[in-house]
């Protein structure tokens, strides 16, 4: 039985790690862009950001003054057992958030939308957000935290089937150009694209694609993976580089996630996960031990299933495909 105290410890630890330590996949992606960047100012910014990340890790301070909006993505194994039920689980997450806000420290960004008051701990109405998913044949719990900027960097459009791939590319370019010109994204960013679903699911898929897949990860559908490569190339050829300066480093990677949608539409969302790509994951095993990583491993074969049910044979065929 996993104790609530263990859940809170894991959540607190990943809150700290996400705020301070840049994930290796993102850091390596940025380092790979430095020599390829054509703009002098953009190249300078990239090098300065790498220096900033190294200083943050050495000094154990947040890598960015705006520590974003801390949130959780929780994957619970179907066989996992834990104290307090899901109410106790959420209390542990909220307590970890409040403690980390004080201790790391995180900037207390959460305020009431109308009255603008806050509790100085990033906890309040519907905050922090917690998204749940489940995994068959597992007795562990994965706690992932993402500190994503909450101001800009997201857009949505209802496309139609006739718009096709060209329509997807057009909206993608329109969005990135608008973000770059108006300072609505801190690039180079991991850009997530949600295609399909209802409007809310489309937005969720795009945000998860941006925040929960590491740089270099490809969609298992080869045609979707090809679209990811095409969008990345397009994004890096609009003439914008790091932090909006002239250059060629808008996208460190592009990830696309799909959901079945209404036959008459093709909703699309675009999300940028900023230059401070903040995420960390803790896996709590059934014996209470905790291991930490930076790849959330969120999009499992089970998460991408199209079938009604699920069994071990389906899992095996998905892994071998």
Outline the structure in words.
- With 321 residues, the protein is an alpha+beta fold.
- It folds into 2 domains: 4-18 and 62-149 and 279-320; 151-273, no CATH class.
- Helices cover 38% and strands 20% of the residues.
- The protein has 8 helices and 9 strands.
- The chain has helices at residues 4-20, 24-34, 40-59, 85-103, 164-182, 199-211, 222-235, 312-320, and strands at 69-77, 130-135, 141-148, 154-159, 189-196, 251-259, 266-273, 279-284, 290-293.
- The strands form 2 sheets. It has a 5-stranded mixed sheet, with helices on one face. Strands 4-7-5-6 form a 4-stranded mixed sheet.
- A hairpin with a 5-residue loop joins β8 (279-284) and β9 (290-293).
- α1 runs parallel beside α4 and α2 runs antiparallel to α3.
- 42% of the residues are buried.
- The model has no long low-confidence stretch (mean pLDDT 94).
Can you describe this structure in just a few lines?
The chain is of the alpha+beta class. It has helices spanning 4-20, 24-34, 40-59, 85-103, 164-182, 199-211, 222-235, 312-320; strands at residues 69-77, 130-135, 141-148, 154-159, 189-196, 251-259, 266-273, 279-284, 290-293.
């Amino acid at each position: 039985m996993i104790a609530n105290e263990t859940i809170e410890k894991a959540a607190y630890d990943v809150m700290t790690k996400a705020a301070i330590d840049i994930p290796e996949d993102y850091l390596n992606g940025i380092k790979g862009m430095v020599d390829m960047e054509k703009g002098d100012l953009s190249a300078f910014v990239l090098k300065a950001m790498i220096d900033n990340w190294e200083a943050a890790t050495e000094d154990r301070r947040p890598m960015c003054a705006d520590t974003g909006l801390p949130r959780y993505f929780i994957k619970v194994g179907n066989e996992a057992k834990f104290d307090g039920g899901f109410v106790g689980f959420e209390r542990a997450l909220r307590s970890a958030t409040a403690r980390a806000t004080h201790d790391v420290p995180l900037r207390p960004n959460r305020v009431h939308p109308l009255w603008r008051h806050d509790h100085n701990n990033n906890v309040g109405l519907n905050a922090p957000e917690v998204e749940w998913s489940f995994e068959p044949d597992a007795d562990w719990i994965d706690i992932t935290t993402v500190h994503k900027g909450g101001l800009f960097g997201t857009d949505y459009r209802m496309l139609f089937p006739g718009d096709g791939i060209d329509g997807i590319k057009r909206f993608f370019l329109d969005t990135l150009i608008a973000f770059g010109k108006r300072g609505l994204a801190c690039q180079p960013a991991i850009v997530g694209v949600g295609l399909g679903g209802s409007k809310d699911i489309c937005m969720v898929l795009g945000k998860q694609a941006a925040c929960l897949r590491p740089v270099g990860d490809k969609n298992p559908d080869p045609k979707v993976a090809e679209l990811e490569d095409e969008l990345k190339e397009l994004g890096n050829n609009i003439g914008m580089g790091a932090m909006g300066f002239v250059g060629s480093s808008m996208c460190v990677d592009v990830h696309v996630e799909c959901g079945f949608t209404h036959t008459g539409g093709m909703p699309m969302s675009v999300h940028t996960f900023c230059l401070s790509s903040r995420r960390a994951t803790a896996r709590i095993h059934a014996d209470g031990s905790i291991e930490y990583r930076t790849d959330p491993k969120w999009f499992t074969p089970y998460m991408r299933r199209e079938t009604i049910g699920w069994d071990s044979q389906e899992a095996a065929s998905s892994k071998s495909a």
